[in-house]
Amino acid sequence: MLALIVAITAHTILNIPHPEYDRFMEFRKPSTGMVEQAIDDLFSEGLIVDRSASFFVGDKTIDVECGMRAGLRPVLVRTGHNEEELCLKRNIIPEFVADDLYKAVTEHILAVD
Asked: Taking a C-beta distance cutoff of 8 angstroms, is the pair 69, 85 a contact?
């Protein structure tokens, strides 16, 4: 089996300044505005994102929820803030939980067929 790993360097940084919070609610997690904008930007460059094969990695419950809302595969990274328990409590279940980013990538993302 041949695995092809493509790294895309982000050349656009989407930053929402705090005083403008109300104007950009759709870009604040768990809303998916920022994800949708990134996918649209990639599409405009000729890259198509397969959401069912794409992962959203984060260390907060809102990250998992955002990934789920965007149709991506959410991965939670433990950071000692008890987010795993909060996810369970809110029934926001990640596809995988890892101790750190390295393990999220090596034990799950790269291991998935």
From this structure: no
- Domain membership flag for residue 64: yes
pTM reported for the whole predicted model: 0.80
> Would you tell me how many other CB atoms lie within 10 Å of the CB of residue 112?
11
Q: What is the 3-state secondary structure (H, E, C) of 64-78?
A: HHHHHHCCCEEEEEC
Residue-number span of the structural domain to which 38 is assigned: 30-109
The angle at the Cα of 55, spanning 14 to 57, to the nearest 5 degrees, equals 65
Q: Is residue 70 part of a domain?
A: yes
Question: For residue 1, is pLDDT > 50?
Answer: no
- Averaged pLDDT of the chain: 81
User: What is the CATH classification number for the domain harbouring 88?
Assistant: 3.40.50.1000
Amino acid at 50: D
Residue of 86, 90, 8, 91 whose CA lies nearest to 47: 8
Ramachandran angles phi, psi of 73, nearest 5°: -100, 105
Is residue 21 packed enough to be buried (19+ CB in 10 Å), middle (13-18) or exposed (0-12)? exposed
